[in-house]
Every structure is written in structure tokens, then in C-alpha cells.
Write a structure and sequence with these properties.
Chain lengths: 221, 324, 501
């Protein structure tokens, strides 16, 4: 999959369906990549098919589809390339990555990230991720992050007892022996929720409009 | 800079906390390298319950499945040797893995502090209902003379049925065609339907079918008969004493546990496998609880070393010379 | 027949005890609530919730687990409809038309239809299990590897019909899906395929990861691009429950879906996964105006949902009568049973009839509970759609991350949803649909296994697929479906073949 080409300019040229052409080229490249990636595997025989047979033929199939699509790009009129925005994908993926490397210690080349647990990873993902749109408002996101994290801590950590790290490793070790883990979880979740609610109230007062508009309806239509 | 200082401080506190001889102070994580609900997971959960009681802290099961169990074991082996992360290893992860995974990041015999054997599940030799042979000797003859026209099922390279199956073949000198399944369920299904001829697998998987008379059991590869299959002879009785194999599950900790922590864990596990309720549940599954000479870290270390030595040649040659 | 009545009587006397009804309710509720988290399907839900049943007595635990299973299944469909994130293979199809309905302000109708169709299918399937469980099992044993291979090929043929755009692009997506499915350790030789030395790829790509990325994250990225679509979704919320006319329209689809799903569910080789696809294909073929499909057709929700639920129930047949789990969910159920000291198999029915029949009766009770829980919840779910999108998507993002992490405790899984999310975004931008890719992925894995297994068993003779009657028939059907899908588009002006989107 290559980046976008300047579709608008090529539209009137030899290329009649830029989207098909680029998609086709993308498929061809993917197919070639598949053949390369599976080139170390044997094909085997019909009696004992080797691990490389399916990947090879599938890649060929993808290439064939790619060629057909690319050719169609010259012979038939079709859709132009769609516009891309970078902000959404970049920020959202950044948020996902941040969550992944902070939830627990993650070896990253030579260094290992400190495991910070849900209490850090969660808000980080929500607040950073929220900036994927222009409409992001910092205080709203912080409120949301606090409330959601508190809810998830109670749901996953307390009620379901899942072994998902909640607190930073260092804190867990430091506090070992002082307070039971459950109590610590509940206190922290309570504090987060409290902060979140306070923020929400403050904002209500300043905006006069709630962040969440509640619909009025009944079940009987 | 501030952060570095804070971490240094916390690390110092950690060291201090670990030295305070009141282990355990918080829940202990037991990594199970297979998905929830599998035989190893079941045994881990049965053992974790009485262990928690003895230790006075919850032993929490964390399932980290992947790559024949080596993903979870690798991760657990790299965690701090403070007694708060232990793991349930088994025949595959601590016996067969070195032969099957080239880039294995741990050494079953050297990277761990063994705690002790938890339970074994005996291996049973089973065949389709229509198999003509009446006893194990007959089956062995049929397999030898049948050559590659015989179909042997197994649940994937590295699975218990695969390792124990190729060991069986190498002992009796048979060369059946190996038919691969993803997991024991589908393999058993085709055995019941008669699509394949025979396989070797853990008792807990095949006992219901044997009881329901949809497949035939020829022998059980333990020194004594199993109470859940009293009519099935042992391999010794049936004339194949060399085939002694069991899928064992054992608790390990990362290498370098403080001595007092190690001792507490060993004692807790020992009490757990002697707990009458746990014993009863393991036996109900057709499993075996460790005998006195099998229990404890020393015996486990020996077991691991002998298992690695036993599986490596068998599996290496099996993987290289798969179906003609 | 009197046997059946007395057996069911026994079953209901067990299932309707106060404790068991409460457990069933609790299971369904918790299952629904967890299953509704984006991308968290039944397998993940059951794996997460399994430990909470350990303290109960075996019958109660199994009833609660079955409740969790149905709840999770239903919760997964809810997410598929509302935010277009299928939690498992079978709700991919529900997402197609269900989410379109939600976008048109008909989320309530879609959810209501799904609940009612599921309930109906569940009722029929329960009766079927009770009456015919044992004999049907024998039928299932006719299916060998060759038949399953043919079945999977047929499934891929369905996938072509599934796509509403260009056939060529759908085929490319299916092939790509199968190609993705072969990543990981080769089952037969243990060799690593296309893993590039990454240890997190040795087990291949997880379905939840792929689905969450391609549907969930990609959907967010797409919505961030275009402000209009999501506002339409927010502004118009119509009826909350399907009207009589809606139900009338959905009824034939529900009946057919139930029959298809129940039949395929009996097959021990994970035939249930095909149910919804098959039901959808048939509805699309039978419809007077097939172009409505993929644009919010109510039959496209009712058919697959009933097939899904019927299959989910009849999948218990091989488990309860043979002791053989047909799919990953059932394998988890086996684990749950063994933890409670029950080894599922032919013996269960005779050894502990109260457990066997109690569980069957509780299936129906569970389905009823789902209806009771979910019809009122429809209002709540639909209200969720009114949350401004700028707050909604970070929340979805967080739930996706936590959900996927909690399945295997692997941060790499979380990273992978980002990767597949971006891939899905590119695919959408180039006019490809992710659904055929996902179907190719699911069936591809099974297909390769069955192909290699059949050829190993036939010692390399490909005629095995045509010599066996069931397999031959399935191949003919597959061929007919492909021909039917290709011919009209070939006859159309050729431009449309390639660019209709």
C-alpha cells in the first residue's frame, strides 16, 4: 500500500481510474512481499503439502488480482484517489502504542519501559488519542480519562479480578506490606472518580451545557 | 533526573521490602503458559487454591498462551526472582521445547529454581473402534507391518500427543503416516469416526470416549493402572515396558529466589499436592499426584534434565523426517 | 416422545430452582456487559469470566457459564451493530447491515430484531438438542476432512457474495485474508511461516486482534476523516423496537437462518462459523432487490443472527454427546467442566442426567433472560450513540486496548490493533471491504488444514474431493455460487464490474 498520489491531476490523463491503479499496484507489491517472505519454505508434494505451497499460490493470486485492477485503471473510468489526512491515523496509533508500552514493562531494543499500569496507560491513551480530532478539548478529555479509568479499574481489577496491572510496578513493590492491593485499588479508583466528577461539575458551571447530552425517550416509541 | 531519583529510591525500598522476612506480602502471580480451560490450566487452578491458603496470599493465575507455552515461560523466567511470579511448566515447555524451538530464550535446566512436581497425566495408547488387534502386542505388530498405510493422529508439532506419539513409534520401530490436527478435539473426532487409526494422548482427553466405547484403549504408559480406567493394562503388563511417559506439570520460579522464599514456596506446593480435596480432584481427572520420591525441587531438577535428554533426539529426528 | 417430556421436566426442575435462575440471569447479564466491550467476543469473555464460576457447584457453574456464553454472543452482536466492531467471526456479518441500520437511525430496530431472532433460534435449537441430540451426532461423523475442505471452499464462495462492491476486489481481499491466516507456526512441520523472527507472530495473528484493528480502529480513523456520516448517526434516533411490519419482513429470514445455523452447528469441525455467512448469502440471493443488502436490510440482521444463535446452541451437541469440543468456545467449556470434575462425553447423559438436562433447559431459560435483559437495554445502548464522537472514540480506543490486552496479557497484541487499524484505513481508502478479508482469514486457516489432512489421508490423490458424495455436492454448490456471483456482473457493462463500490 503506497501513499496517495496526486489524483486530481492524473484524473484526465492516461489513467482513468487512479484508485484502481494504485490499489492494483499495492496488491502486486503485497503479493511480491508474500512470495519473498515465504521463499524459505518448501512446497512439498501433493501427498505431503509443504508449508510454502499455500503462501506461494495465494501470493500469486493476490498479484493476479492486482494486475487486473491496475489494468482496469487504464481501461475503465473509475473513482479518483481519496484524500488522506494524517492527523487521525498518526495520533490514534500513537495513543495505542503509548498504551501498549506503558501497561507493563516492555523491552524495546536495549531498554525496557517501566510498567506503569492501567492508572497511567489508560488516561494516556484517552487524552492523547482524543487529540486525533480538531474538536478535542483538554478538560473534557481529562474528565473522561479519569472517569473511564476509575470505572475500568473497578470493573477489571476489582470485580473481575483480572491480572491486568493497575499501578506502576515500582509503587506496587514499594507499598508491599503496607496496604492490601484491593484496598489500594479501591481508594485510587475512588480518588480518580472524585476528581473526574469535580472537573465535570466545574465545567458544567462554566459552560452551562453538559458534556453528555442525555436523550429523552421511552421504550414505547 | 527527578524520575531517576524516584526510581532509585523505590528500588531501594523494594530491596528493603523483599528482605523483610514476611514473604508473601501481596498476591502471587502464577503464569500458566496455556489458555484458560486446558489441562495445565485446570491443574494450576486446583493447586493454586490450597497454595493460597498455606501462603496466606492469593495465588492468581495469569494465562499467557503462545508458541507451545514458551511465550509465557519466557516472560515468567525474565521476571524478578522475588517469589511474586511463579509458573506452571510442563513436559512441553521444560522437556520438548529445546528440541522444537531454535531461538528458545531459556534453558529448562538452568534458568529456573524448581519448586516441585504438581501432577502428572498418564498417556494412553488408543485406536479406532474397528482396529482388529485385541491387545497391545497385536497393535504393535499391525503398526509395524502396516508401515505408512497406518494413520496416526496428533494434535500439532510440540503437543503432548505428538511428542509421546513419535516416542512410541521410535520405540516399536513403526513408521506410520502422521496426520496433524489443531488440538486434541478434532483429532479425537476423526479417531471416533475411523478416519485415522490410532494416537497417544492424555488420559483426561480420551477417558470419556473409552468409557463410551467409541474408541479402543490398548495400554496406559504408567507403572500402575489408573483408577479411572481400571480395565486398561499398563504398558509393562502389556509387554512394552520401555514406553513409560506422562504429561507432567510442575511449578518453577525464575532463577535466584531468596532461600527463605524458595523454602516457603516448596512447602506450600508440598502441602497443596497433599491437600485431600486437591488430590481428589486431580485423581478424578485421571491424573496422578507426585509420590514422595517424585516430590520436591531436587527430584524436579532431575526430571527436567532427564526429560530434555530424552526428547531432544526423538523430536529432532521426527521433525526432520516428517511424512515421506 | 414421553421420554423427551420427562427429561425436559427434570431439566426444568433443575434449571428453574431459584438459585439457578439467579445464576443464569447473572451469567447472561455479566456476559452481555463484558461481551459488549468493543472487540471482546465470547471466547475472550468466557476466558475472562471463567474463574468467577469456580466457587459454585457444578450444575450452577455450568448454567452460569452457558449464560455468560449467550450473553457474550449477544453482547458481541450489539457492539457489531452499534460501533461496527465484531467480537468474533460470526458477528462480522451482523455488522454489515446492522451497522448500516444504526447509521440510518435504526439502531434500536436492528438490536431488537437481533434479540428476537436470536431468541426464536435459541428456542428451536434447544428443542432440537433435547429431541435429536444423540442421533444427530452420528450424522456428524460422516464428515471427514475432505467434506470439511469442501465446506470451507463453499464458505469462501459465500464471501464473494458477501461483498457488495467489486467482485475482483472481494476476491483479492479473500486471498489476502487466507494469506494472513497462514502466518505463524506451521501445524505439520512446526516451521515458522512469514513471522520475520518476531516471537509474537509464532502463533499467527489472533482473530480478535485482526477484527478489532480492521473494523474497530479503522472505523474510528475513517470517522475522523468525515464529519458528516457520524453526525447523521447521532442526530436521528428513530424507533427503539422493531414494528410489526419490521418483524414480518424479518420472519422468513429468521426461519431460514435458524435452519441453516442449527444444521451447520452440529458439525464438529467448527461448521457453526459458516452459519451466518450462509444465511446472509441465501437472504441476499432470495431478495427481490439484493442491492439493499449492505445498506441496512433487516433480513441481513435477522438471518445471520438467528443462524448464529442456533449454531451456538447446536454446537453443544458434539460436546455433550461425544465429548468433543467443535470450536474454541466449546473447548473452554470443556475446561470449565473438567475444573468442576465433570468430563463431558457420552457418559454425562446417563451418569448425571440432572446436569445434562438441567443444562439444556437452562439454555432456553438463558435465551429468555437475554430477551428480558436486552430489550430494555436497547434504550441504553442507543443512548450511547448520542455521546459526542470526540468523546466516544477515545473511550472505544481505551476499551479496545484493555480488552485486547486482557485476553493474552500481551502488549504486542495492542500494538497489532494499531497496525491493522492503519491497514484497514488504507483498504477503505482504496475501495476495499474488510469483511471478505476477515472471512478469508477465518476459513483460510481451517481450509489449509483440511486440505493438507485430506491429501495426507488419501496419500496425495486429489480425486478424494470428488469421489466422496457429500464433498462433491458441496463443491458443486460452491461452483454454482461463484458462477451466479460472476455471471451477472460479467454481463453488466464492464466498468461496473471493476468500479462499482
Amino acid at each position: 500500500m503506497d501513499g496517495p498520489l496526486d489524483g486530481a491531476q492524473r484524473r484526465r490523463g492516461v489513467v482513468r481510474a487512479p484508485q484502481s491503479l494504485v490499489a492494483g499496484i499495492g496488491l502486486i507489491l503485497l503479493g511480491l512481499f508474500g512470495i519473498w517472505a515465504s521463499s524459505d519454505l518448501e512446497y512439498g508434494s501433493l501427498r505431503a503439502i509443504g508449508p510454502g505451497l499455500m503462501p506461494f499460490w495465494l501470493s500469486l493470486g493476490v498479484i493476479a488480482c492486482g494486475i487486473a485492477l491496475a489494468v482496469a485503471g487504464f481501461t475503465h473510468d473509475g473513482a479518483p484517489l481519496q484524500s488522506f489526512t494524517l492527523r487521525g491515523p498518526v495520533v490514534v496509533i500513537l495513543a495505542i502504542l503509548l498504551f501498549a508500552i506503558t501497561i507493563r514493562p516492555f523491552p524495546f531494543g536495549g531498554i525496557t519501559t517501566p510498567g506503569l499500569g492501567l492508572i497511567v496507560a489508560g488516561p494516556l491513551a484517552v487524552i492523547v488519542g482524543g487529540y486525533a480530532t480538531h474538536e478535542a478539548r483538554f478538560l473534557d478529555l481529562v474528565t473522561l480519562a479519569l472517569l473511564l479509568t476509575a470505572g475500568c479499574m473497578i470493573l477489571f481489577g476489582d470485580l473481575l479480578n483480572l491480572p491486568i496491572p493497575i499501578f506502576p510496578n515500582a509503587v506496587v513493590q514499594a507499598l508491599t506490606g503496607t496496604i492490601p492491593a484491593r484496598t489500594m485499588l479501591r481508594i485510587a479508583a475512588g480518588a480518580l472518580a472524585l476528581f473526574g466528577l469535580l472537573l465535570m461539575l466545574l465545567q458544567r458551571r462554566s459552560h452551562k451545557r453538559g458534556t453528555v447530552d442525555v436523550a429523552r425517550h421511552s421504550l414505547t416509541t | 533526573m527527578k524520575k531517576a531519583f524516584a526510581f532509585g529510591f523505590l528500588a531501594a525500598m523494594t530491596a528493603f521490602a523483599a528482605r523483610a522476612d514476611s514473604y508473601p506480602q501481596r498476591p502471587i502471580t502464577m503464569v500458566v503458559p496455556f489458555a484458560a480451560g486446558g489441562p495445565t490450566d485446570v491443574i494450576a487452578r486446583i493447586v493454586a487454591e490450597p497454595m493460597s491458603k498455606v501462603l496466606g496470599q492469593q495465588v492468581v493465575i495469569e494465562n499467557v498462551a503462545g508458541a507451545g507455552g514458551t511465550t509465557g515461560i519466557t516472560r515468567a523466567s525474565q521476571s524478578a526472582p522475588d517469589g511474586y511470579t511463579i509458573m506452571m511448566g510442563h513436559m512441553g515447555t521444560h522437556g520438548a521445547a529445546p528440541a522444537l524451538f531454535k531461538g528458545l530464550k531459556y534453558d529448562p535446566a538452568k534458568s529456573f529454581d524448581p519448586i516441585g512436581l504438581a501432577a502428572g497425566t498418564p498417556i494412553v495408547i488408543v485406536a479406532k473402534k474397528t482396529m482388529a488387534a485385541t491387545d497391545l502386542k497385536g497393535l504393535v505388530e499391525a503398526l509395524k507391518s502396516g508401515g505408512s498405510s497406518i494413520n496416526q493422529a496428533h494434535a500439532g508439532v510440540g503437543s503432548v500427543s505428538h511428542s509421546t506419539g513419535v516416542l512410541f513409534d521410535s520405540i516399536i520401530g513403526a513408521k506410520p503416516t502422521l496426520v496433524v490436527y489443531r488440538g486434541t478435539g478434532p483429532a479425537l473426532n476423526d479417531l471416533v469416526a475411523g478416519q485415522v487409526d490410532f494416537m497417544t494422548d492424555q488420559i483426561v482427553n480420551v477417558a470419556p470416549q473409552i468409557a463410551g466405547n467409541t474408541i479402543k484403549a490398548y495400554a496406559i504408559a504408567t507403572p500402575e493402572r489408573s483408577p479411572s480406567l481400571p480395565n486398561v493394562p499398563t504398558t509393562k503388563e502389556a509387554g512394552l515396558p520401555d514406553y513409560q511417559v506422562s504429561a507432567w506439570n510442575a511449578v518453577f520460579a525464575p532463577k535466584g529466589l531468596p532461600e527463605d522464599v524458595r523454602k516457603k514456596l516448596v512447602d506450600a506446593l508440598d502441602a497443596a499436592v497433599k491437600d485431600p480435596n486437591a488430590t481428589k480432584r486431580i485423581l478424578e481427572l485421571g491424573g496422578t499426584v507426585p509420590k514422595t520420591e517424585e516430590a520436591g525441587p531436587v527430584a524436579l531438577q532431575k526430571l527436567v534434565e532427564s526429560e530434555v535428554a530424552r526428547w531432544t533426539p526423538v523430536l529432532r529426528s521426527a521433525v526432520e523426517g516428517s511424512n515421506p | 416422545m414421553p421420554d423427551l417430556v420427562s427429561n425436559l421436566g427434570l431439566g426444568f426442575s433443575v434449571a428453574l430452582s431459584l438459585q439457578n435462575v439467579a445464576l443464569c440471569f447473572l451469567g447472561c447479564l455479566v456476559g452481555t456487559l463484558i461481551g459488549v466491550l468493543p472487540g471482546v467476543g465470547p471466547i475472550a469473555t468466557i476466558a475472562m469470566l471463567l474463574p468467577i464460576t469456580f466457587g459454585l457447584d457444578p450444575v450452577g457453574a455450568l448454567i452460569m457459564l452457558a449464560g455468560i456464553y449467550y450473553g457474550a454472543q449477544y453482547g458481541g452482536s450489539t457492539t457489531a451493530i452499534l460501533v461496527n466492531i465484531p467480537g468474533e467471526a460470526t458477528s462480522v456479518v451482523t455488522a454489515l447491515d446492522g451497522h448500516q441500520m444504526a447509521r440510518q437511525g435504526k439502531a434500536g430496530i436492528a438490536l431488537g430484531t437481533a434479540a428476537i431472532a436470536s431468541f426464536f433460534a435459541g428456542t428451536v435449537a434447544t428443542l432440537l438438542i433435547a429431541a435429536l441430540g444423540a442421533p444427530l451426532t452420528q450424522l456428524a461423523l460422516i464428515f471427514g476432512p475432505a467434506e470439511y475442505f469442501a465446506l470451507m471452499v463453499m464458505g469462501l464462495a459465500f464471501a464473494i457474495v458477501l461483498a457488495h462492491g467489486s467482485v475482483l476486489k472481494a476476491v483479492a481481499m479473500i486471498l489476502l485474508g487466507v494469506l494472513l491466516a497462514v502466518v505463524g507456526t506451521d501445524l505439520e512441520t512446526g516451521q515458522e511461516r512469514m513471522t520475520f523472527g518476531f516471537s509474537f507472530l509464532t502463533d499467527g495473528v489472533d482473530f480478535s486482534v485482526l477484527a478489532m484493528g480492521l473494523f474497530g480502529v479503522a472505523e474510528i480513523l475513517r470517522n475522523l476523516d468525515s464529519t458528516e456520516t457520524r453526525d447523521v448517526m447521532r442526530e436521528r434516533i428513530g424507533r427503539l423496537l422493531p414494528s410489526f411490519a419490521d418483524l414480518k419482513q424479518a420472519t422468513p429470514a429468521t426461519l431460514r437462518g435458524t435452519a441453516i445455523g442449527a444444521t451447520l452447528g452440529i458439525l464438529p469441525g467448527n461448521g457453526a462459523v459458516l452459519g451466518p455467512f450462509a444465511a446472509y448469502t441465501i437472504e441476499k440471493k432470495l431478495a427481490k432487490d439484493p442491492s439493499r443488502f449492505g445498506r441496512g436490510a433487516i433480513e441481513g440482521v435477522a438471518g445471520p443472527e438467528s443462524a448464529n444463535n442456533a449454531g451456538a446452541q447446536t454446537a453443544f451437541i458434539p460436546l455433550l454427546t461425544l465429548g468433543i469440543p467443535p470450536n474454541a468456545v466449546m473447548a473452554l467449556m470443556v475446561g470449565a467442566m473438567t475444573i468442576h470434575g465433570i468430563i463431558p462425553g457420552p457418559g454425562v447423559m446417563t451418569k448425571s442426567p440432572e446436569l445434562f438436562w438441567g443444562m439444556i433447559a437452562s439454555m432456553w431459560v438463558g435465551n429468555l433472560m437475554l430477551l428480558v435483559i436486552n430489550l430494555p437495554l436497547v434504550g441504553v445502548w442507543v443512548r450511547l450513540l448520542k455521546v459526542p464522537y470526540r468523546l466516544m472514540f477515545p473511550a472505544i480506543l481505551m476499551f479496545c486496548s484493555i480488552g485486547i490486552y486482557s485476553i493474552n496479557s500481551l502488549p504486542t497484541d495492542v500494538i497489532m490493533i494499531g497496525f491493522f487499524g492503519f491497514m484497514g484505513y488504507l483498504l477503505i481508502k482504496f475501495g476495499f471491504e474488510p469483511a471478505p478479508l476477515l472471512l478469508g482469514f477465518v476459513l483460510g486457516k481451517l481450509m489449509e488444514e483440511y486440505l493438507r489432512r485430506s491429501l495426507t489421508l488419501s496419500r496425495g490423490d486429489p480425486m478424494v474431493f470428488l469421489e466422496r458424495p457429500v464433498s462433491a455436492v458441496l463443491f458443486i454448490i460452491a461452483f454454482a455460487i461463484v458462477a451466479a456471483a460472476l455471471l451477472p456482473s460479467l454481463r453488466k457493462s464492464r466498468d461496473e464490474v471493476f468500479t462499482e463500490a
